[in-house]
Design goal:
220 residues; Rossmann fold; globular; 29% strand; alpha/beta; 6 helices
Length: 220
């Protein structure tokens, strides 16, 4: 199976998802939307990753509108999609949902609870877990979607047909987190505590990320 990973910046790549894709014997192709524009092909499954930009900044990022049109096309075709953070927001927006600034940002390790929905991808997650997050925006649930997990602030996972979205970052490696700290130091109130919590949790978090990606691959 060919898996296309759509990226929106140099520090927001597929992370540990690449491990799961390789272990399953699939082919991974990374595609930078800001640099290359709309992909020339979708492959058999698409992972839409995060980025430092927000999902409604069409005036600042000329590639956003074409990406949204491309995502609407993939939704109509039934292409298996997995959106992460910005990617989840963009899939929701492409499906007609409102995107907006959350009541408060979620940066760091945030409690998340699954809903009581049986789903082959979400079933790979614990009922309750602390998820690594880095976002200021959220979205309404698209029409026809089911909510699979949420935090105190917003929807954390949903499914819409053959598309899944997660607001948290199951793909992220420790090195990526360090680069985000360098890029957005003002987002973290206590960097020392943030790093300590990340050091203690990242290995288990990476295992969860690999299993979530593996569940997506098995399902599609």
């Amino acid at each position: 199976m060919r898996v296309l990973a759509v990226t929106h910046g140099p520090s927001v790549g597929p992370g540990v998802f690449a491990d799961a894709i390789d272990a399953a014997g699939h082919e991974l192709r990374a595609w930078s939307m800001p640099e290359l524009g709309v992909p020339d092909e979708a492959g058999d499954a698409v992972i839409v990753l995060g980025g430092a930009m927000h999902p409604d900044e069409d005036d600042r990022h000329g590639w956003l509108a074409p990406e949204l049109a491309w995502l609407r096309e993939q939704l109509a075709l039934g292409t298996p999609l997995l959106g992460v953070c910005l990617g989840s927001q963009l899939i929701a927006r492409a499906a007609g949902a409102r995107v907006f600034r959350a009541e408060e940002p979620e940066v760091g390790w945030v409690p998340v609870e699954r809903t009581h929905v049986d789903d082959p991808v979400a079933n790979s997650l614990p009922d309750r877990f602390d998820a690594f997050q880095w976002h200021h925006y959220t979205h309404d649930l698209p029409e026809g979607a089911v909510e699979l997990a949420r935090s105190r602030v917003c929807t954390q996972a949903y499914r819409l047909g053959s598309a899944w979205g997660v607001q948290f970052h199951p793909e992220v490696r420790a090195g990526q987190i360090e680069s985000w700290l360098d890029e957005e130091p003002g987002d973290v109130v206590d960097p020392a505590a943030f790093r300590h919590a990340t050091s203690a949790r990242i290995d288990g978090w990476n295992e969860l990320g690999r299993e979530l990606c593996s569940a997506f691959l098995r399902t599609v």
